[in-house]
Description:
Layout (H helix, E strand, L loop, with lengths): L2 H10 L7 H30 L7 H59 L3 H39 L1 H6 L17 E3 L2 H12 L15 H11 L2 H9 L1 E4 L4 E8 L2 E7 L1 E3 L10 H13 L9 H9 L4 E4 L19 H12 L4 E4 L4 E7 L13 E6 L4 E7 L3 E5 L4 E3 L5 E3 L2 E5 H7 L2 E4 L4
Antiparallel strand pairs: 1-5, 2-3, 3-4, 6-15, 7-10, 7-15, 8-9, 8-14, 10-11, 11-14, 12-13
Helix pairs in contact: 1-3, 2-3, 3-4, 7-8, 7-10
Amino acid sequence: MSTSAWDLAGGLVPEILGSPGGVLEVADSWRQAGGRVGGAAGLVGQAAAGTPSWQGEAASAFQESTGGLETDLGSLQTTYQGGAGVLESYAGVLRAAQDAAATLRAQASSLLLDALGDPVKALAAMAALTTIAKAAATIQTEVTHAASTAAAALSTSGISSASRSSSSDDTECDEDDHTCARAPLKKSDIARIRAQINGTQELPGVDQGRIGDCYFLASLAAYAWTDAGRKMLRDNVRWDESKKAFIVTFYKDGEKKEIEVNDYYTEGNGSGTPDLFNVYERAYGKLIGNDDLPDGHSEDAMQDLSGKKAKNLNTFGGSGFLGWPWWDDDKYTDGQWKQIEEAVDSHQPVTASSDGGKTITARVDTNGDGNVDDTDAEGRYQIVDGHTYAVIDIDDQYVTLYNPWGENKDSSGDRIHGGKIRITRNDYQTYFNETHIGQIS
């Protein structure tokens, strides 16, 4: 076979890169690791069962600790076994694609050899070579799709968190990556979150940590503010005993996605006691990628949560080049105000994004009764720049917001806990140039 013909054929049918054998080796190592972890889980269970007569607080603490460890080890075993299956499937696709590409390359080379110096055969070969090139492109597309599918499956299965779970030593984490540090959900955490899902325990307030995902947590807060929104959040999460994980349902680009969660971001929502919002936060990071979790958009988050299109209102003025606005006139139209009012009154989730921070005259919950009204002292409070709040109430004069930080700072920097802040409608349209209205599925 001519080298030049083979080289030309290689140009038409590029090599499919990758090592099926190498992928299978990794899969096999994961299966073995899963088996070892499963054995360890069994030993922990035996240790717990071997102390039936032990009573008192120490015994309870031991039982909870071993139960949580057994659950965590079981989840890790499932993660390794599931990841191995994903890799084995991908290796099969890769091997079949490489075999098919080799066959096409041989056919192309044979056609090129026959066509050399023969114009009649060259014309006939052109059509066949075009078909071969298209087939090669299809094979490459299938491999790329299989690789993307495998990567997504590994991400949602928790395989990455299995190797990067938080411990006392987070030296591998970049100090600016607040999604890196994670911890497994303990047995007591799982029980608490399941109670929040079934409604026997109230949902706590959203309390943003160091991850810059205010847009997502504010969206959760907006849903959690109404009965229908809380029901939706609860309905979209379930505990899967066989997987030892919570399954969170999202709707990415209109397609239903189920994400497994068995750990949480230790620098994320809350104060170290994981709740339902931590499960949602971790699941969303798996859905869109940890790198994309900070600095997103509320309307996207609400669409992913509900599967229904969100509406975006803004104070931008006339349109300029290619539709981009020439200016921000800091005013909502009467029609836009009406849409915001109707959305809040009909218990739709509403959020607002700020563009420009400033200390303004406002009211927060200074008397600690959980509400913000004229009985609270008026003061000077900060509107956070580039931040998203939930909109929870509106009347003819004021808009009441919830800061996902769970607090607001006054002019001296002191933190007033509670998260609610009431501002004038004029200040709202001055400092919040975008309002996002979601729907409940």
